[in-house]
């Protein structure tokens, strides 16, 4: 179906007196892959479960680019575009001038307001090269519509807020929600009041207990593949939430961010934003975006099959019910509310768990691979070449390359050829050949969609299935173009949505255009997706 025809079907489906919803609630759950959600759907009876049962539920949305990570995932959900347009290629990028890794939303000209500014950390949307749903809403309402985005991660809150909304994230140094000088000159009264409640401090000395009887959890609590003492909270339930500290502080705040109490803090912050900003109170449409980050921290440390992941989903299910109920009240009822839910990425199983099950899994250390590649290039060209591997991006540098002493394209192609021969690699491509390389396996196209000049690597590669890129000997990761990493759920619910189970595979770039249609406004400027007409008309 063409984009024009899809848009016409949407217009036909809308009643003549159509008006935008008073409030749109945009929910993202970090690391909620389709497989993880489907495994536990029958156990979800709260807000998340109700969304799946009463909304337009797409279990199989697939990101079309290769590096499934938090920053690009949220940017794609917010813009309706792939990284080759919005420019957010990964959580971190390599600064060739300093040899330093920087977070992708770093901005030295904008510091954290009333918090601690880390020079290499995310603070503003200056790096985001595409208009977001939040920006479009602000433009369509001539600045009257309000947008507030909340997350424990700046790299999630910033793209959801765009350039024109408000972004708030958790500061692990202070235990408060903070923003930067890009978004505000002073902390508003409602956020000041929220932070004085010190909810992160209230979690100190408490424990993370199982929500349900132990017999209801699948597998083992004490799995040998888990780290011995992740985040200083222990490997088995109940988990201590002090982080080994004697009083509330950065150590305990880090553990708090992993625990399900992080879900509760975000819900309370959302309720404060609804009240403090008056979201949904009038006929000018507003948007509240909430990205739950604790799920991702649990995934990395304990793995997607762990008791910790099972329990955090159950508790998220509860928290989401409270969030949705608050949004309904703020909007004056369900008839005035639209809800969208998705995820930034999925994630791999702990590779040693896969290996025990008989799958060809491997934990692939990028630091060791970079050393081996540097030795190979020195032997071949007789000069020192620095090599940095960040997920699927290989950055090459050194004086010989920068001065032109050796041919850069030749070095990049040699690096790609060496990587392609390694037992952990499926394909590797120098940036010089990205547009012309044969794509018989269908993996070069995802690399192209994720490539943005200057920020992306000099060589891009794809590891084999069940191979996890990680320099840490325990836990797991994500960032490949395989289904377990790139397949996520999408749900639309509320005003104008036709509930049902929609089994066609869609692309998360369709989320922002569909919400644009539901919100009665144009799409973000660089959107590549289209409105999901079947979710608005009921015709598949």
Automatic annotation (TrEMBL):
Residues 1-18 form the signal peptide. Substrate binds at residues 91, 153-155. Gene3D superfamilies: 3.30.1360.150, Alkaline Phosphatase, subunit A (3.40.720.10). GO terms for molecular function: alkaline phosphatase activity; metal ion binding. The keyword Signal applies. Keywords: Metal-binding, Phosphoprotein, Signal. CDD domains: AP-SPAP. The active site is at 70 (phosphothreonine intermediate). PANTHER family: BIS(5'-ADENOSYL)-TRIPHOSPHATASE (PTHR10151:SF120), ECTONUCLEOTIDE PYROPHOSPHATASE/PHOSPHODIESTERASE (PTHR10151). This is Alkaline phosphatase family protein. It comes from Corallococcus sicarius.
